[in-house]
Specification:
This protein has 118 residues and is an all-alpha fold. The chain has 4 helices and no strands. It has one domain. It binds protoporphyrin IX containing FE. Keywords: Membrane, Transmembrane, Transmembrane helix. This is Integral membrane protein.
Length: 118
């Protein structure tokens, strides 16, 4: 179980790297597959991590997870809309891409800094 959990933590961190790396550092305002798939992957890998923690009877801070889920859905919404605009030939939406990157950084901060409670 520990190895499985660690593998999903790794995937979770790679998903974050894809979003923040693409939106903030590499493509700066351009929609990329890395941003879109990273945003989708965070929701899936995050929910799997919650499932693994619950199954292993590790304490789960439900308020924190709830907030992270809402923020992650907002990240995915920004990424999906920006990608859809490009697909339809309506041009880039740099503000949405930047918002997705900034919200992902916010979620990383929540993950690391929100330590109290269970
Ligand atoms: C953009 C979205 C997200 C980002 C950037 C993000 C980022 C992070 C980071 C940086 C960690 C810390 C890993 C560590 O300390 O080892 C983490 C852990 C975690 N995240 Fe997320 N997260 C996101 C979305 C979610 C979602 C949607 C959920 C669940 C619904 C979730 C559930 C978890 C759990 C359960 C852990 C603890 C893993 C562990 O250390 O055992 N995350 N996340």
């Amino acid at each position: 179980m520990d190895l499985l959990e660690n593998v999903f933590v790794l995937l979770h961190l790679l998903g974050m790297a894809a979003i923040v790396g693409s939106a903030v550092f590499v493509a700066r305002g351009r929609s990329t597959p890395a941003l879109l798939w990273g945003a989708r992957a965070q929701i899936v890998s995050g929910l799997i991590l919650v499932g693994i923690a619950e199954a292993g009877a590790d304490p789960v801070n439900h308020a924190k997870i709830g907030v992270k889920l809402v923020v992650a859905i907002a990240v995915a919404a920004c990424a999906e809309i920006a990608a859809a605009k490009v697909r339809k030939g309506e041009g880039e939406r740099p503000q949405l891409v930047t918002a997705a990157g900034a919200l992902a950084v916010l979620n990383a901060a929540i993950a690391v800094l929100w330590v109290s409670g269970s």
